[in-house]
# Entry
Amino acid sequence: MLKNIDGESKMKVAIINVRIIDTKNNIDEFGGILINEKGLIEACGSKVTKGNVGDTKIYDCKNKLAIPGVVDGRVFAGEPGFEYKENYRTLSQAAISGGVTSVVTMPNTNPIIDNVSTFDFIQRRARDKSLIKIHSLASLTKNVEGNEITEFGLLKLNGAVGFTDGIQCVQKNDVMDKIFDYGKNQDVLIVQFPQDNELSKNGVINESLIATKLGLKGIPDYAEHVIIERDLRLLSQYNSKYHISVLSSGKSLEIINEWKNKKLNFTTGVSINHLSLNENDIGEFKTFLKLSPPLRKEDDRINLIEGIKNGIIDIIVSDHKPEDEESKRLTFQKCATGASGIETFLSLALEQYHNGNLDLKTIIKCVTENPAKIFGINAGSLEKGMPADIAILDLNKPWVVKRENIQSKSKNTAIEDKKLQGKVEKTFLNGKLVFEI
Amino acid sequence: MALFKTKQAVKYEKKHLLGIQDLSIPEIVHILNESQSFVELNRKENKKLSLLKGKTQINLFFESSTRTLSSFELAGKRLGADVMNMNVSNSAIKKGETLIDTAMTLNAMHPDILVIRHGNSGAANLLSRKVNCSVINAGDGWREHPTQALLDAMTIKMKIGKIEGLKIAICGDIMHSRVARSNIYLLTMMGAEVRVIAPSTLMPKDISQFGVKVYTNMEDGLKDVDIIMMLRMQLERMDGSYIPSTREYYEFFALDYKKIKYAKDNALIMHPGPMNRGIEIDASLADDINRSIIVQQVEMGVAVRMACLKILMENQK
# Structure
């Protein structure tokens, strides 16, 4: 029998009596999942039953739903530099309570993750401190200043799953041109946050009637369109691997669709906040809803959901951005941007299933199979040989988001007191039960 | 006689005065009726009352101001309150203290009323949630400046006798103007036809949904109007960022004797001050006693603020 680092005997594990959805393998059936001593999936499906799993530790899940552990494609971890907002340990606790087992982290830390030594440092920190699997993006440009490209090749060798300036968007055309060119050369994934700096300068909210009423500087939706149009034009010269991190405007989908019709290959994402909320939710200066890109109109939200439905948008992300109390206890103009949300991510996404907007498999695909594929992560499916990262959820369980129950170090949830339906009850990481209600 | 029929008035009973958008027509009528007695008082030799005796009023101004600050100070003093002006250039805010910390510090001194001006929209709302006393918004960012709109309404009512049915044009930098927003709310509510006139680069998004008519040239916008309300134009916005130059702005959007001819013959001119003579308004036109009621606005300002202070103090009881 193998022993793990805790000295605890390792044995096979069987999860039985579950509905299994694995979109990658087109599985939606009742059955079980058998996990070997190494924490890898040995068998999955209707053939795995209590009767044929042999000498194993059995988890009878009583007809709950089992899906691959969620892969969250846009997460801000606080390390290094912002440990007071979130560290790998608190991030892990928050993640597993929401069924998230792999995350893709942004390089906007202090210092910026733009060189091999910093990258190596966070990889080690993550290995030592994090329960969940951390996949880091390095920055596209040095110090995310948009001027000089980083060491794509070396950083990739060290494990960077892609490159992005995170909350910054590369503005200069020639720099972006080089990024696509050299990015193609090194075969790396380029992830862009699409927002024009000049058009969004000093903006804190969607440019609309609400901005006018609140007396706040708006960010027009075309601040997003111009970058997407430029990037896709440049991309068509090189055909590099390109992913648009977060969309906020419905009109962006028209532009994207046009290029997809021209057979240009790239992928796109949207944050769960933008599928669930709109600018009206900001009410009277609710700083927890100051997001980047800003929440836009209800029409935009509906169009983004359509985008998921018809496959123009590939992934849904939490855009988990923990911010401490002090940075949010300011005027709307001055306060920090972003919302914490990794632990409510999946449940909030299920809202779109419960209200009939999206089917269950589409949602699951957008948070497991697709992000794993885009970022090249060994996760997102339950086939034989995969690490047994699994979320078990009660699809119908009602619950209310309460600030005091938030596991993340920062409590800046955009959906406080919201009633949700569907909750993760167990999370397995490499076959080990790491979270249970 | 009351300015408005008293049966139209309903007492304003909220703790704070944060914006015109929170007011109803009867509440506005109530505030203006209350103001009327103070107009009379302010013209008397003895202007001192003791309604607010023993009360403490703090004027917390994060943006420089001469007329609004002095107006509030005088209003409080004439009502008998102890008035303190917080000099922001010396205050802890420059040392990195946040608005909320400053508010909590002041709150510990037990003021009865805080008058706040701040460059960020929503600052007064934020403050009002953190302190125990009443808060009056004396201007927050681009959002609201409720006492200015009330004093403007008071001036119009005193001068013309009505607001309903008047055609009122607000001209200038609408986008960055809290005065424009508060006035739009109030005057449309009171039944005036409100127009906004500005170059399109200074027009806020979807402003027409506020129930105003939108014009981008003075000739069309001023046609047949009863009142022209000019706004202050910030010089730093006329360096090519919004407007090519002050000269171009003056030619097309400043109020001069040529453009005022588009309005009604007896049209009146208002300005919240401070004026940029020769930039948004012709210097002699601003002083034309047949046209300009800018001085009356200042006079009404003190009376309206006295009424607001009195009402909020009563609401605390």
User: Anything to note?
Assistant: DSSP finds 13 helices and 17 strands in chain A.
